[in-house]
Design brief:
The strands form two sheets. This protein has a five-stranded mixed sheet with strand order 1-9-10-6-7. Strands 2, 3, 4, 5 and 8 form a five-stranded antiparallel sheet that branches. It is built from two helices and ten strands. The protein has one domain. It is of the alpha+beta class. Helix content is about 35%, strand content about 30%.
């Protein structure tokens, strides 16, 4: 026999109430997940700005003929340091008439410094960025999630920025080695 309330109606079935509560719970979890992703993305952009500002300030403090190794805190393996010479064909719009240094995010197996990347014109003809690995050298530096010893050599006509991946642990090395293949595809 079915339960009937005083108005002669059947009460809402318990399964329907559970289903509505479950749907509301799933929606709340989905919104929370989106918020966390948004916070993480904003955090990477903020960290990229802090990293880039710190690096460029240290470079600016060097005089021509000086070099130094600066310890900087990396934050993600999806961000890369790129250098562009003044006469180089393909480079960010912001850097068309000068040498340029950029920190850009890897997106879909490429680098888009014009959309979300950070670039600064460098008053040098040649801006070289170099990663040293166990078997080769490539023309960019992928950041790692630990302290990085970035070597900078500043001369009258050029600046060279390098990082030696041979000095990091194997776990961090394995996370960036595949990304470094993208650097071999950067057109000169």
């Amino acid at each position: 026999m079915k339960a009937i309330n005083k108005k002669g109606e059947e009460p809402v079935k318990p399964n329907l109430i559970e289903m509505v509560v479950s749907i509301i719970g799933i929606l709340i979890l989905g919104l929370l997940a989106l918020k966390l992703i948004s916070i993480a993305l904003d955090s990477d952009n903020k960290n990229a700005g802090q990293f880039f500002n710190s690096l460029t300030e240290k470079i600016d403090a060097l005089e021509d003929g000086q070099n130094n190794t600066f310890t900087l805190q990396g934050f993600s393996t999806d961000w890369v340091i790129l250098g562009f010479d003044s006469g180089q064909g393909l480079k960010p719009e912001e850097c068309l008439d000068k040498g340029c240094l950029c920190v850009c995010e890897k997106k879909d197996n490429s680098f888009d410094c014009d959309n979300g990347g950070l670039c600064k014109k460098i008053d040098k003809e040649k801006v070289e960025v170099l990663s040293k690995t166990k078997d080769s050298s490539v023309g960019c530096i992928f950041l790692i999630k630990s302290l990085m010893g970035i070597n900078v050599i500043k001369e009258a006509g050029f600046i060279k920025i390098s990082f030696d991946y041979n000095k990091i642990d194997d776990t961090a090395y394995s996370k960036v080695i595949n990304n470094l293949d993208l650097c071999r595809k950067i057109p000169a």
